[in-house]
Specification:
The structure is a homodimer.
Chain A (H helix, E strand, L loop, with lengths): L1 E5 L3 H12 L3 E6 L5 H10 L2 E4 H7 L2 E4 L6 H9 L9 E4 L4 E2 L7 E2 L7 H8 L4 E4 L6 H5 L10 E5 L2 H14 L6 E5 L4 H6 L1 H11 L4 E7 L8
Parallel strand pairs in A: 1-2, 1-4, 2-3, 4-5, 5-8, 9-10
Antiparallel strand pairs in A: 6-7, 8-9
Chain lengths: ~220, ~220
């Protein structure tokens, strides 16, 4: 598939590299067409580098892997006044982490709204799916790094878009049975609000290579 | 031990009943000394019923199981102008859930503050420990209801208070190895912010009797 990856940081690099390894045609987008990180990635991985708009116009799927606090402006650049995002599946994997007060970060939007909801509202014709934001980059693209039946969440309004994203996650190594559909885009705020706990756990566990599994009581049997 | 339980709802009932069954001397506190729910609980379980202040003055440990949005006023009544909370271990198990906009709820405080931090700030001599807020009442007092190595979190400034609370949790059935110390009271906001995801999962799973387990990568071996 033709996929645009917005962002040249660790998450963008991990996802773009995995997608290229899987045989997809990837354009890594940056704010500046001359971005050296993107150019180096393209050179090393057989993809292309370009602007955010180049990546978005290339992709049937556009993956937002920019820093969360800059995501809306990056997506505006990606849309480029040409509706590059209209009708596209936009997988939003970012978190609105605000480090301006130091570590640990707070969220720049939370509780009554979320980054994913803001993106969906700003680009109503985009088919936004929130996912992957609850694990570190290495685990996103290689879930077997962590043992056990750990899970990912998906939120979004468009069932077909969620199915498309679930297919890509399957290629990354996430079995369908470990993908939990939380519901519409509003539910993305609950996955984003988990991330401060993720940061606490990162500190408590001393590693970023972890995830959560869901365990539940056996269903009660119906009495006859 | 002498324990005061503030609140007569499902969480207060579950915890007070379990504590009484374990042989502790429990006073269930309500805003009104004539609260019929508390009186019925005391009659059925061999404890006592009283005001918030009665429960707090009785307890070496005070458990805040009031509705989160009323917790600060309940604790002010419990303190009673007599410093009933000073020096006490206050286990805060509530969530600041605001249902005024319907279901799902939002949090009445989040992100840059938390209910537990507000309680610690309002009662600086209380030894506040946040815990148990991430599971439903039945699982709080009977973790074996859910299979597997699922976990609880503790946050607070006072290591001895956390140890006391961990001891009670052990009596409930939580092994020490499944208690994760997230750090100081600030970290309570991250456990509180998980709760909206809990609500999403409750909807997705169709049961409240679940919890999360943490899985992590094997530690990398040192190369020789």
């Amino acid at each position: 598939m033709d996929i645009g990856v917005l962002g040249t940081g660790s998450v963008g690099q991990a996802i773009a590299t995995r997608l290229a390894d899987l045989g997809h045609s990837v354009v890594m987008g940056a704010r500046d067409a001359a971005n050296e990180t993107a150019a180096a990635w393209a050179e090393a991985n057989g993809g292309r580098a370009g602007t955010f708009a180049d990546a978005a116009s290339h992709g049937e799927i556009v993956i937002n892997a920019t820093a969360g606090v800059h995501a809306l402006s990056a997506l505006a650049a990606a849309d480029g006044g040409q509706d590059n995002l209209a009708g596209k599946v936009v997988a939003d994997v970012t978190n609105p982490l605000d480090f301006s007060g130091g570590f640990p970060p707070v969220l720049s939007v939370a509780n009554t709204n979320s980054l994913a909801e803001q993106i969906q509202a700003a680009f109503p014709e985009a088919r936004v799916v929130k996912t992957l934001n609850t694990v570190t980059a290495a685990v996103m693209v290689n879930p077997d790094l962590v043992p056990g039946e750990h899970v990912l969440f998906l939120s979004g309004e468009d069932p077909a878009a969620k199915k498309t994203v679930a297919g890509l996650l399957g290629e990354f190594g996430w079995p369908a049975g470990r993908l939990i559909d939380l519901g519409g885009i509003r539910s993305a705020r609950t996955a984003e609000m988990y991330v401060p706990l993720w940061v606490s756990l990162y500190q408590a566990l001393g590693t970023a290579n972890f995830n959560i599994a869901i365990v539940k009581a056996e269903a009660e049997e119906d009495e006859e």
